[in-house]
Structure to design on (89 residues):
């Protein structure tokens, strides 16, 4: 993949957040945080390895799944995982 200013992780962080809900109810916010802590192990593993997860998702009703873009730049991979996936050299 060729990196451009638009595809670098820093450029992703500079995008303004859209569709951010207001959270006037602290209990509702705490509920969201609790659900985030229950992310599937696969997603947690991706994050620990250094993956970036795109904003937005596609709901695939035919297969009853939700698809998201996951990107792992090898240069950003956590060294603990490099031995599992290979050094890339």
């Amino acid at each position: 993949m060729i990196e451009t200013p638009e595809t670098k992780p820093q450029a992703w962080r500079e995008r303004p957040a859209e569709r951010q809900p207001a959270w006037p109810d602290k209990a509702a916010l705490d509920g969201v945080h609790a659900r985030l802590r229950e992310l599937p192990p696969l997603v947690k593993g991706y994050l620990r390895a250094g993956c970036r997860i795109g904003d937005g998702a596609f709901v695939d009703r035919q297969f009853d799944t939700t698809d998201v873009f996951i990107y792992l730049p090898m240069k950003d991979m956590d060294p603990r995982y490099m031995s599992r996936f290979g050094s890339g050299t």
